[in-house]
Amino acid sequence: MSNRDRLRYVLSCALGVLFLLYLFTAEQNFISVWAHPRMTALHTLLELFAITVASMVVTSAWYTFNRGTGRHSQIFIVGFTVVVVCDVFHVLTYPGMQDFLSPSGLSSTLFYWLVGRSVEVLTVSLVAISVLPRMSRWLSLGVGVSLSAAIVVFGTLFLDSFPQTYIAGVGLTPFKITYELILFTLNLMLAVALQVQAQRQGSRVLSLMSLSSLFMGLGSLAFTSYQAISDIQNLGGHAFKIAAYALLFRAVFISNMTAPFLALKASERENREFREVMKTLGANLHNSVIFQVLRKPGGRTRFTQVSESIERINGIKAEDLYRDPTLWKRLIVQQDRGLYRATERMSLEAMMKFDTTVRMACPDGRERRMHFVAAPRKLTDGTVVWDGLATDVTEQYQTEARRRKLEAELNQAQKMESIGTLASGIAHDFNNVLAAIIGNTQMVIEDVRHQESAEALQGLSQIQKSATRAKALVNQILSFSRKEAPVRTLQPVRPIIEESLSLLRTTIPSNVAIDERFDDDNTYALMDSTQIQQVLVNLCTNSWHAIGERCGRIGIHTSLVDVDSQESRHSSLLPGRYVRIRVEDDGCGMDSATLQRLYEPFFTTKPPGVGTGLGMPVVHRIVTSHDGHITVDSSLGGGTRFDIYIPGVEAIDGVHEESAPIAHPKVMGNGERVLYVDDDPLMSQMVDRMLTRARFKVRVVNDPHVAVELLQKSALQFDVLVTDYNMPGLTGLQVIEAARHLREDLPVILLSGYVSEQLRQAGKRQGVGFVMEKQKSLEELSGAIERALEAYATEKIQ
Ligand code: ADP
Ligand code: MG
Known about the structure:
Blueprint: H1 3-25, H2 30-35, H3 39-62, H4 72-92, H5 106-128, H6 137-157, E1 166-167, E2 171-172, H7 174-201, H8 204-222, H9 232-284, E3 288-295, E4 301-306, H10 309-314, H11 318-323, H12 334-350, E5 354-361, E6 367-378, E7 384-392, H13 394-449, H14 453-481, E8 489-492, H15 493-507, E9 512-518, E10 523-527, H16 529-547, E11 552-563, H17 565-568, E12 576-585, H18 592-596, H19 615-625, E13 629-634, E14 640-650, E15 673-677, H20 681-693, E16 697-701, H21 704-713, E17 720-724, H22 732-742, E18 748-752, H23 757-765, E19 770-773, H24 774-797
Parallel strand pairs: 9-11, 15-16, 15-17, 17-18, 18-19
Antiparallel strand pairs: 1-2, 3-4, 3-7, 5-6, 6-7, 8-10, 10-14, 11-12, 12-14, 13-14
Helix pairs in contact: 1-8, 1-9, 3-4, 3-9, 4-5, 4-6, 5-6, 5-7, 5-8, 7-8, 8-9, 13-14, 13-15, 15-16, 16-19, 20-24, 21-22
This protein binds adenosine-5'-diphosphate and magnesium ion.
Residues 538, 542-543, 546, 585, 587-590, 594, 598, 603-606, 611-616, 640 line the site of adenosine-5'-diphosphate.
């Protein structure tokens, strides 16, 4: 209730009271003189107005908006039906009116008057104390009409049993005056009670009812003091009554009609504004489309909401999508449709979040990558509704791809740096190996010249040993520097660490001791061996630098640890089993400033040329990509300890260490005739010597054309054809093809410096059973020839 309402209330009260004071003090004046002869008509007119207002109260209660909650409408219907009837009979029986059901006269008219006022005050009281019956409006009307009928019957037939209210010549009886005073008191109390309630609830309706009761009460007071019915007090009392009814009508009308209507209008406006906001929001969403889609139990789908941003993002109109719900889906590129359908099915069947990213070919020719997220919910009729958001993630995706590429490049660059570190050590080792080979060769030449074969043999075995070592070194470096996408496989941890350490031992000077300890040989982890090696190389190189020229030690300790939920709270590790690789040194250690920036790219405390600041960030990234965790413990002068945790397991069934390649027993031939085709004379010479030694009969040809000619002369003069692939003139495959024309079942072996999958396939197509790498051929060729011959033999028997 506003202040203005309050002021109005107070003013109305004051006006009412002043008017009453005037009525009490006024002399019977010209109004009463004028009114006297016309009283019947005048009264009818006044009451007509009151009856109309009372009827309007019934009507508006009848058509109340909130019939369910507004139960006071029922009481108004009952009460005011009675009031209307009483007022009508009050008019009909007024002195001067023609007799209707019973003779007209003051006692009759006053009876209806008093009953009407009583019912009115009772009705409003019931509303005020909220004693409200639960009934339909028809029943209410029925009750009202019945009560009225009973009152009319009483007023018509049994009026004598009603106390006297007026005695001609004397005036109003004490009963009538007392009754009016009681009505006045009741109305006044009601007015106060209603006003208190109105203040508490801030309700204008209650305030109006309170004012109405007050006026009604004041009217009662006025009716206590007239002598003649045309007295100004009587007229004034009627005026009060009309005012009271009008106020009540206003209250009922507000609560039943205006208020709900205004509320409706307000909510409609809010609704409209909300829709507007949603619409602009949807249209202006930079990268996303808001949508809602329904799927009826029969399977029909329909979009109920699509933000206008779809036009900008996917180039189709929301209206078109309402019309044709498959339009959006049809933009999905062929390869991604299966994925979309599968996600859709899963979301529908399991009622789980729909979440997928697909590529869409938009009408303007652009390809967009769209991320759909939608939550499904089921309505009671079985309809499934998805409320979702589709976001264009093309740019993020490209950025991510670029980031991954850069990361791979950084990784590779850092690896090259590590190799640089290692290379100096390896080169040194390699030089030693070469020196041994050269020296021994020199000696063997001398020995052979002097026919000292025993010495020569010893020298040759030295040479072989050194060469094998050289090969191992080269392999190590090669395996480390390979540029491959990281592949994590479940593999034993120990060999990987051992290989890294053997690599490091060649690099790190002898003042630094490297101790390794493995608590458990059977530890396996899901890892990329090259990356884990890189981690160890980086950590150990740092340790070595930290130790410097002094004597020091690097300890590498591998164990399997269980992290429980208690410990996991302190780190970002989930509880579970981990391989812990601990790398510790007794070097210079780090101060807190260095520790803080340890994993920062390009942070280094080393002079240019020694440090690049890439080691630790790469270590961190590799460990994280292995779902692992790294901790560091270091203090200035107190050494450093790194713990790396990677999810690990103990050897489980079916997981075994990769068995070492089976060493082929030296296979000896039995005079089988081999045609060897290779344009490289050195290689040919070596193969010739080796196969001859293995008791094969070898014919070496350096020109593929010559080989074909030989075969043409007689294909049967050879038992097996071994040919190099890459040769000038004809390729190995072409030689084989020619041979196949001449002799379909000739066993063949193809050699190549590099065996690609493509070459292997091409060989297969031509029925080449063996495609081998040239480097391997020296060790394995005789075995391969034997197997090729065997395969041929079994084929022939069959
Ligand atoms: P770089 O070795 O090229 O300087 P890193 O990222 O490998 O770059 O290391 C960053 C810095 O962290 C090093 O410069 C060094 O100060 C410090 N650091 C790393 N490991 C150790 C260690 N084991 N002992 C002492 N300091 C270390
Ligand atoms: Mg480093």
